[in-house]
Design goal:
The complex is a heterodimer of chains A (about 350) and B (about 160). With about 350 residues, chain A is mostly helical. Chain A has one domain (about 75-340). Helix content of chain A is about 65%, strand content about 0%. With about 160 residues, chain B is mainly α. Chain B has two domains: about 1-80, NADH-ubiquinone/plastoquinone oxidoreductase chain 6, subunit NuoJ (Four Helix Bundle (Hemerythrin (Met), subunit A), Up-down Bundle), CATH 1.20.120.1200; about 125-165. Helix content of chain B is about 75%, strand content about 0%. Chain B has helices at about 1-25, 30-50, 50-75, 90-115, 125-135, 140-160. Chain B is globular and about 50 Å long. Classes of the chains: A mainly alpha (about 350), B mainly alpha (about 160). The interface between A and B is medium-sized, with 32 and 27 residues.
């Protein structure tokens, strides 16, 4: 790999630049394909299909222009510094998520040994940004939204982590590259035709991971923190223009990152068994992107279809349903690991 | 090696200033947010020592869970924006004395334990080694600690329950 030969500062600069380019690209792709087109089709919303003529291609650009030319308003009573910092904190959490996602044998910003553990840890940082936004807005709806978001993110952090444990136990490594290789070289009863995508053995873990990441993204049916019929717009109520765009971009890019992690853990990531070496470095990003789009479609399909939970239902769902199942999943995986 | 020392100095300075602000700031939420910087700085120091696993644990436990709980608690009870006059009390000297005592104990313990030993910075502790020692020689202490945590949890519920 060329980047590996460069001095440390240059390599870091290039990696940072690539991730900073990937985040808006990921957010725009998901925003365009799912939030606009899929949603328009599923919910018969015809507006986004009109602008610019063919399939409403101009909608996204129009939205971008709208956000940028809006006035930047900070409420008079707000804590200005923290109000301004909050979107950046959320975006930093998203940025750090992308650091460990591998897109090819050599295409990863930092191949950490603790890969998936690191990803789960940094994804929990966004809660601080959300709480900062909710508190600094000096608005009771914002504060309630922030508190709801924090309670929800803490509750669903657990099933998210526990769902991953089954995969980690089976692959025997925390490294995302290691998990990809395990699936690529795995065999189903001695047959190595498609490797061993862990969704086959860890299907329960996959379902738990998708459900929990849906809640981590505060998307419907888990969008209590932003419930517009009760809290105006939750912790984003007082945000306008590009600051709001930051939150929006962070949320969509995090959806992409979590879908990429789900694709890596359960669907084999960048790898398909018959692609190796340099070819894998070139085809890897496209294979990963294809799998991400499949997982993201699942996530958004649920979002567009199901109505919102009530707050107590939401907490009960995490503590009484998802966590016991994920613990049982770990137990069963451990038994199989020891027996076979 | 020089670069590492420079980074250590910068991180240490940021941590000291933030820690100072934690106790001097006039706003309780800002104090918690300065604490985030201190804890993140400690995490970065672990990373500087190539202790990846400890760094991730620091982030997920302290920043992702404990600080969030602090913020959650203060915001649920009383967290006004701006200056808060009721944050101070008359135990400054006692606090200073305790801090100095703690500093003395830490210096004594650390210099006793390590002295002039130079830790090789390139000796990266692999995550697998951490796991092997945790589930090998240290299995019993590890499980005892988790039972202790469980006891604390049950105790907290017992205290919080009204009936």
């Amino acid at each position: 790999m060329v980047v590996a030969d460069l001095p440390y500062w240059a390599a870091t600069l290039i990696k940072t630049g690539v991730i900073l380019a990937v985040i808006p690209a990921a957010a725009l792709t998901l925003g365009y394909v799912f939030l606009m087109k899929t949603m328009a089709h599923m919910q018969s919303r015809l507006g986004p299909m009109e602008p610019g003529g063919f399939h409403g291609w101009f909608q996204l650009i129009g939205d971008g222009i709208k956000f940028i030319q809006k006035e930047d308003i900070i409420p008079e009573q707000a804590d200005r510094a923290i109000f301004a910092m909050a979107p950046a904190v959320v975006l930093i959490s998203t940025f750090l998520l992308f650091v460990v996602i591998p897109a090819g044998p050599d295409l990863v910003a930092e191949n950490l040994q603790t890969g998936v553990f690191f990803a789960l840890a940094v994804s929990s940082l966004s809660v601080i940004g959300v709480l900062m936004a909710g508190w600094a807005s000096a608005n009771k709806y914002s504060l309630l939204g922030g508190l709801r978001a924090a309670g929800q993110l803490i509750a669903y952090e657990l099933p998210l982590v526990l769902a991953v444990v089954g995969v980690v136990m089976q692959a025997g490594t925390l490294s995302l590259q290691g998990i990809v290789e395990f699936q690529q070289h795995g065999k189903i009863f001695g047959w190595g035709g498609i490797g061993l995508p862990l969704i086959i053995t860890q299907f329960v873990g996959f379902v738990l991971f998708i459900a929990a990441s849906q809640a981590e993204l505060t998307q419907a049916p888990f969008d209590m923190p932003l419930a517009e019929s009760e809290l105006v717009a939750g912790y984003t109520t007082e945000y306008t223009g590009f600051r709001f765009l930051f939150f929006y971009m962070a949320e969509t890019a995090t959806a992409f990152a979590l879908a990429a992690i789900a694709a890596t853990l359960f669907l084999g990531g960048w790898a398909v068994p018959w692609v190796h070496g340099t070819v894998a470095n070139i085809l890897g990003p496209f294979i990963l992107a294809a799998k991400v789009m499949v997982v993201a479609f699942l996530i958004y399909w649920i979002r567009f279809t199901y109505p919102r939970f009530r707050e107590d239902q939401l907490q009960a769902f995490a503590w009484k349903f998802l966590i016991p199942i994920s613990l049982a999943n770990i137990l069963v995986t451990a038994v199989f690991k020891v027996v076979f | 090696m020089v670069a590492q020392n420079v980074v250590f100095g910068i991180l240490a300075a940021v941590m000291v200033i933030s820690a100072w602000k934690v106790v001097t700031t006039k706003n309780v939420v800002r104090a918690v947010l300065y604490l985030v910087v201190v804890l993140a700085g400690a995490g970065a120091q672990y990373l500087l020592l190539a202790q990846e696993f400890i760094f991730v644990v620091q982030v997920i436990v302290y920043i992702g869970a404990i600080v969030v709980l602090f913020l959650f608690g203060t915001m649920l009870t009383r967290a006004p924006i701006g200056r808060d006059v009721r944050l101070d009390n008359d135990q400054r000297w006692l606090a200073a004395l305790t801090s100095l005592f703690l500093l003395g104990v830490l210096i004594a313990v650390l210099s006793n334990a390590f002295g002039d030993t130079h830790v090789n910075a390139t000796s990266v502790q692999r995550t697998a080694d951490v796991a092997n020692s945790m589930f090998g020689p240290y299995l019993v202490p590890f499980e005892v600690v988790s039972v202790l945590l469980l006891a604390a949890l049950v105790g907290a519920i017992a205290i919080a329950r009204r009936d």
